[in-house]
Amino acid sequence: MDKSEDILSLNRDEMGAWMQRQGWPRYRGNQLFGALWRQRAATYEQISSWPKELRQTMSERAPFYRLQAVTVQKDRDGTRKILARLWDGQQVEIVVLPHNYGYSVCVSSQVGCNMGCKFCASGILKRTRNLTAGEMLDQVRLANDLISPEDRIISRVDLMGIGEPLDNYDNVIRFIKVAHDSQGFNLGYRHFTVSTSGLVPDIYRLAREHLPITLAVSLHAPNDALRSRLMPVNKAYPIDRLIAASKFYFEETGRRVSFEYALLAGINDSGEMAHQLADLLQGLSCHVNLIPWNPVPEHPFQPSQKKLVEEFQRIVQNRGISCTIRKEMGQDIEAACGQLRRREEELLSP
C-alpha cells in the first residue's frame, strides 16, 4: 500500500487533504479520522454519517486492515495480554494493565527487536520490520475495544512492548501526535512514556521535540563492563554518554527521566551495585524503577530474592534518589514481553 493510502497512519489534516484530492469535501476526512479512532469503526460501512456511495468508493480505493486478536490472556489481577496479527501475518504483543486511575496499554513498536539484550524475551526473535504509526494506533484501538464492556478507555500509553521505539523514530512520533489529537484518543503528552535501550543520538532528537513525554531509559547496570555484557548497545553508546543525554532531556523538557533496572540474581543486585547506581545518578532529576525480572527459559538468569530487591531500594533511596519497585502484574500469563509471540510461532513452525 502506497504511503498516501496508508489511511490509518494519517493525521487529521493529512486525512482531510487526502479526501479532498479524491474529490470529496475536506470535512469528510475529519469524519473519517473520528470514526477510526473515537468511534473505532471496523469498516467503512460502519461510518453512518457517510453516504453509501462514499463508503463503497473508499472500500475499493483505500482499504484498511484492523489488527486481529489471535489470543487474549487474562490474569487474576486484571492484566490482559493480546497477541495480535498484522496485515502481513506478522504478530505483536499488547499488554493492557489495570491501575487505580484506569487502564494503561503497553504498545509494541517493531516486529521483533535487534538490540540483543541478554535478559530480554523480545529480542530472541529478531526484527522483521518497523510498525507503522497506524499499526501502533490500532493497538490502542484494540485495547479500547477489549475494555469497552467495562465502560472504560485507555488513559496512558507506554511504548515498552516489543521493539526499540527510538529505532522506529519517525513512526513513533507520528503515532504519539495522532493519539494526542482531540479527535483521536485525546491523550495528553504527559500520559506517554517512551522506553529506550540507550540510542543516544535519538534521545537528543526526542528532547528537541519539546514534547512533555516521559523518557524511560533501560539501564540495568551501573558500570560499562556489566552493561556491555548485558546490553550490546552500550558498546556504541556507553554510560557516560547516556547519562549526558538524559540530563539534556530533562533540561529541554522539564521531565525527570525514569531509569529501568531489572534485578538479576548475583549479577546486578548487590549492595555495591546499588551504591554505584546512586553515584552514577547523583545530581540528575530522575526516578529509578526496580523491576523484579520475569524468567525467560532461553536466558540463564534468575530473579533476585525479594529481600535483596528491598535492600537495593533502601540503599538507593537513602542516597537521596527516588526509587520504587515495580508492582508485579500478569504473573499467570507469560508476563515477559515477547514470550507469547515466541510460543505461538514455535507452535506454528514445522
| Oligomeric state of the chains present here | single chain
How confident overall, as mean pLDDT? 92
- Taking pLDDT < 50 over at least 5 consecutive residues as the criterion, the unreliable ranges are 344-350
CATH architecture of the largest domain: Alpha-Beta Barrel
Under CATH, the homologous superfamily of the largest domain reads Aldolase class I
**Sheet of most strands:** 10 strands, mixed
Determine the strand fraction and express it as a percent band. 15-25%
Kindly identify the CATH topology of the largest domain.
TIM Barrel
Distance between the termini: 30 Å
Helix and strand element order: HHHEEEEEEHEHEHEHHHEHEHEH
Count the beta strands: 12
Percent helix: 25-40%
Short description:
This protein is of the alpha/beta class. It has helices at residues 12-21, 27-37, 52-61, 133-147, 169-180, 200-207, 224-230, 233-236, 239-253, 271-281, 306-318, 339-348; strands at residues 68-74, 80-85, 91-99, 102-106, 110-111, 129-130, 154-159, 192-196, 214-218, 257-263, 286-292, 322-325. 36% of the residues lie in helices and 19% in strands.
Describe what this molecule looks like in 3D:
The chain is an alpha/beta fold. Helix content is 36%, strand content 19%. The chain contains 12 helices and 12 strands. Helix 4 (133-147) packs across helix 5 (169-180), helix 6 packs parallel to helix 9 and helix 10 runs parallel beside helix 11. The model is unreliable at 344-350 (pLDDT under 50).
